[in-house]
Amino acid sequence: MGMTTILNNGVLGLTAQSRALGSISSNIANAATTGYKATETQFDDVWLKDRSSNVGDPGAGVRAYNRLDNRAGTISQTGVTTNASILGNGYFVVQDIDFLNGTAGTTTATGTPTDSNVELTRAGDFSMDKDGYLVNTAGKALMGFKLDPNNPSTTLGATSSLKPVSLSGLTDYHEATTQASLAMNLPTAQAVAATPTLANTTGATLNLIDKSGSAGSTMLRFMKTGVAEDGSTTWKVYNAGTVGADGQAVGSVKASDPATWQPMGSLTFDRSGVLTGGANGSKLSMGINPGGNFGPVTVDLGTYGKPDDSVTSIADMDIGTRTSQNGIAAGSYQGAELTSDGYVAATFAGGRQRYLYHVPDAIVANPQDLENLSGTSFRTTTESGAIKLAAFGKPSGNGTSGNTTVGASLNNNSVEGSNVNIENQFTTLIQAQRTYSAASKLVSTADEMTQTTLTLKA
């Protein structure tokens, strides 16, 4: 081995250990960074072959290369409903907002996401930015498949169909009522009548939401029309008018004028006061069309043969009046959450939820060979393999042997921290320092030997 080779080996050793020290310093600096993945520097012997003899020289130096440590970090609870950590394999798909808007650098793209330009991350500390996008602390926007809130799909599309998750405009989000339900107990002592009046009917109010998101209400009136020999009773149901948010009557039906009431249908109760006349377990529904800015509404009056949550006429029972409706009033938005099965759900007053986006789990075959963009964001390479999008699953289990799930799931209200082990990093730092010093000594020794050779006299 010549002195030139010794000198080259020393320089290669310094270069390799410099790279290792750079990785260690980055790891230590990011020990508290959410979703950070440590970089491991690995070393390989450089072999050179003599062309004439085809014999390899194992003493040709060392080379260094970095690989990701893909182990999960520590999970910590944050209490933020849009935060989530991944339990299992995979990544969130994220992207720069500027790129999505077609304004990043000199790009002329329209922001169409592809495997080669989206980024992957485990940093799930998402929160709403000033423009309404869900972004993490690195400024990366969460990507998902946009859904129809009234007909959410579980089907995942292609990467190109992903959209940035936006909560903008939800304070004005509203839905008109299309379904309502009523449960109450009608008085058994009510007299039989043939023509409805305020005195011989019992009323119940249904709250409704119109097409503009404003609140209103419809009055239903119930009149007993007959009592059979077996004790069963029949009742007629009337639409007794609707009022809007301004308190004014909608259409020609008025609660104060029974002559304008519109019949909706009839009810039959058995001698015990339970709905009868249909197959047990089937629903009894009637329709109303209030008019004005209100759409048609289907009113659920209960289940045949089931007194719970139904209209009944049971003696000496007062269950009060219980109503519900599926409309969402404008201005009733209360917040959003990232669910355990990967949906971004908006919550409105009354506990109503609407799924807005389906967030996929991005999986690659060889995550150690992802391109490291920042320590928290990564991009696919030929070696890592292409992105495969999968659905997050809901954890299941009885708690005795731990929760399990098919594939990965999300842990709500939490984030995954850095996977850097400080103790190991300082141990590796000492080793790298010693090896760097040894390589430096090798260079200085080779230099001294060279100087000695040059000063030899014949």
From TrEMBL:
Keywords: Bacterial flagellum, Cell projection, Cilium, Flagellum. The keyword Lipid metabolism does not apply. Residues 202-324 form the Flagellar hook protein FlgE D2 domain. Belongs to the flagella basal body rod proteins family. Residues 7-37 form the Flagellar basal body rod protein N-terminal domain. Residues 413-456 form the Flagellar basal-body/hook protein C-terminal domain. Its main location: other. PROSITE patterns: FLAGELLA_BB_ROD. Signal peptide: none annotated. It is found in: Bacterial flagellum basal body. This is Flagellar hook protein FlgE. A flexible structure which links the flagellar filament to the drive apparatus in the basal body. The keyword Transferase does not apply.
